[in-house]
Amino acid sequence: MVGADEVEKEQTMEAIHAVPERATAKLLDARMIFLLSLLLAGTGLVSPPVALLGGLIFGLTTQEHPMRAESARLSKFLLQAAVVLLGFGMNVREVVHAGSSGFAYTAMSISVALALGLLLGKLLRVERQASFLITIGTAICGGSAIAAVAPVLEAGEEAITISMGTVFLLNSVALLLFPVLGHALGLSQNAFGLWSALAIHDTSSVVGATAAYGSQALAVGTTVKLARALWIVPVSLVTAAVVARGRAAGSKTRVSMPWFILLFCLAAAIHALLPGWEKSFAVLSSLGKTGLTATLFLIGSGLSRKTLKRVGVRPLVQGVVLWLIVGSASLLAIASGWISI
Question: Poorest-confidence range of 212-221, 315-324, 326-335?
Answer without folding.
Answer: 212-221
